[in-house]
Amino acid sequence: MASTVITFLALAVPIWSLPPLIPTQYPGVYQLTEPVDHAECPSWDDRNNILYYVNIHDGQVYRYDYEQGTVNYITLDGEVAPVIPSKRDPNLLIVGLGRSVAAVEWDGVSDPSETRILAALAPDFPTSRVNDGKADKQGRLWIGTMGYEGPDGLTPDEGILYQVTCDNLDSPLVEIAPVNISNGLAWNAANDKFYYIDSPSFLIVEYSYNDETGEISDRRVVFDRTAHDLLGDPDGMTIDEDDNLWVALYGGGRVIKIDSSNGDLLEIVPLPALDVTSAIWGGPDLDILYVTTSRVSLTDEQKLEQPAAGAVFAIVNLGTKGRPTFEVDLLGSIDDETCGAKKVLRE
Ligand code: BGC
Ligand code: CA
Predict the structure, then answer these.
(1) 136, 235, 240, 329: which is the annotated catalytic residue?
(2) Closest C-alpha to ligand 1, atom 10
(3) Residue 170 known to be catalytic
(4) Per-residue pLDDT tens digits for 266-319
(5) Of all atoms in ligand 1, which is nearest to the CA of residue 200?
(6) Which helix (H) or strand (E) holds 4?
(7) DSSP-derived 3-state class of residue 345
(8) Which of 55, 82, 261, 327 sits most deeply, having the most CB atoms within 10 A of its CB?
(9) Would you place residue 4 in the very low, low, confident or very high pLDDT band (cuts 50, 70, 90)?
């Protein structure tokens, strides 16, 4: 530091006219929660500053309360992903469960009394299961599935990306099929582009998106992980206020920042866990990147080396922020039989 000051004096240049010699911001990576086997699908509810995430294989839905600093969970009957709060009732959670879409009323304290199945998914692939999902601006649910993944690897081509609305609960609309592991999901600020990941393809793809009709079209590749000196499969993804994509690398130990307009790799943030599963912007100012990780595929040795694998991490000082995530708008309450009627849009 001392030599830096001397340099300034010798140059006799006003200190405020010099470019900073060292960056003023460094990302800070904090372990937020205790590890679980496979944390996934973080979602932020900005109405009451709650972070939801799941522990897929154990059927657990977690709720981190930013203001209280508490973490609670419930256990459902089946593999669970994603969890997204509802537009008309913050305690009404819409979850992917096994091969279905379900609703659960949970206030974060009491045990939920009921899980209501709303729609069945992937009837032709009985060993497949739900994976990532998000709501779009209209409150439609986009939820994907993936083929069975066991010790011998993944059953390919048994995943589907669906769009679920009140009008199609009996037969959810197939958006993209076949896929291997349905992941990613983000919309740009103008809400005319949709970003998607089929993890084993190593690609991030973009579609034109029509918010009025919910249609996607004109697929093009934005980013190919294999063209970079990086490891891992692109997994969950979120987007910041500048339309840069923040992508988890499963098996890559990193979150990467991609310019969605040209696919440039802008930033790499290492995490102390190899299997990084997803990311979402949260916090009262939406400037904390919450990142989920997994320990389920690690060897015993890797688990010793990565004691925090399976935790949720909070990354701060990234110099950008996100936009509020959308909520699902399917039901007004757990016993709402009308689905779609009595709509009260969020202020
Ligand atoms: C899935 C995991 C899978 C991983 C591999 C995740 O999205 O939830 O089960 O192992 O992707 O890429
Ligand atoms: Ca995922």
Answers:
(1) 235
(2) 149
(3) no
(4) 999 999 999 999 999 999 999 999 999 999 999 999 999 999 999 999 999 999
(5) 12
(6) helix 2-11
(7) coil
(8) 82
(9) very low
